[in-house]
Amino acid sequence: MYYMKNVMQNKIVISGMGVVTAGCNNVAEFKDSLKNGKSGIKKVMYADDGKCDIKIGALLGEYFLGSDEFEKYIDIDASLYSRAKKILRNTSLSEKASVMTALEAWCDAGLYKFDIDPELISIIVGGSNLTKKISFDNHDSFMAEPCYLSPQYAMKFFDTNHVGILSELLQIKGEGFSVGGASASGNMAIIEAMRLLRYGLSDICVVVGALSDLSLMELQSFMNIGALAGKKFADRPEEACRPFDEQHEGFVYGQGCGCLILETEESVERRQGSFYAKLLGGGMCLDGNHLTNPNKDGEIKAMKKAIDDAKLSIEDILYLNAHGSSSSLGDNTECEAIKELFGEHLKRMMINSTKGITGHCLSAAGVIEAIASIIQMNDRFIHDNINLENPIDEKFTLVRGKRDNVDVKIAMSNSFGFSGINTSIIIERNF
Q1: What is the secondary structure of 333-373 as a DSSP string?
Q2: What's the rounded Cα separation, in Å, for the pair 360 and 351?
Q3: What is the pTM of this model?
Q4: CA within 20 to 30 Å of 261's CA: 145, 232, 273, 416, which one?
């Protein structure tokens, strides 16, 4: 019992970050998009037969697909560069995004400079059903000539292929697995990594919120259940994602991927490294409901569990990066949950949703929005809630226009998923 109490004192820090979203190929470009409120949502062509209802999205696009961004890391050791080049020759869009963000975060943390026991490093990938588009794209050729299906498909439809690729790239030999929690997957991966480090099972954990590469079939299903935006603003795509606005009509599909290097504070000190922020706590709970409708009580419980885990009070939270998906039921439920939990303290808080800029990156959302929260705290600004014209509740303290020169030490970030999965994390800046 003494041992368990002792290891639970491990403090967790975030020592590296990597990200790609629509129009942003690294953390620097992502920071610029947050500061300037640049939306990556545009008109897209999913099919040319006129039958498709989906006309907008925040897709990575040809710039990402045709770039060799990892070339900027040629000053690191040759073996890592060689492995990256080899792996990227034959990866799917989702896998490539995981490789690129993990490589950026790994180098950002300076881990390539140190001889660290690979068995003390772990990988957790947040996301499930990540390669649906690959299955969809192979369907017709498979039905015509099944025997000519690529043997590589046997590996690529497993989400854990991301784990294998990243372990090969970074030569990691500790624990590794993927976790699926729908749109809460990213936060779920962060929380599970925090637990690994707290309990002394790893010193370092590479956490990836993976890109959900959806096919037209999945997107149309979201449209058919009323979850997807694109009807009112099909001709004005940059205005379509409207978290907490009266004209919200659903989420906009966003392609993105984020990676965080979580590390024990002792590990960082041992290698005389630096870190961006501390991960203070996290909370998860279920609603006991398999449907898509959110539950106020479950969201309150997840946020409260995160605050308790961090050993804080609600008065310590000054900034909240909301799940804010731009769906009517989701936004209204989260609004009511936040108001009920924070009460009068809400007047002193700032709340925004990064999805207005990135679209809803699904499995990756939690990690991407944790990165957004860290950037804002460390650079002393809070990004605008773009497209917020008529808030659903005037008493809800939503940011209207970018806030500069703000002093926020602690942030909360929410992610909620279909099937009643609720998560919340709390991050503290490092100064």
Answers
A1: HHHHHHHHHHGGGGGG-EEE-THHHH-B-GGGHHHHHHHHH
A2: 17
A3: 0.96
A4: 416
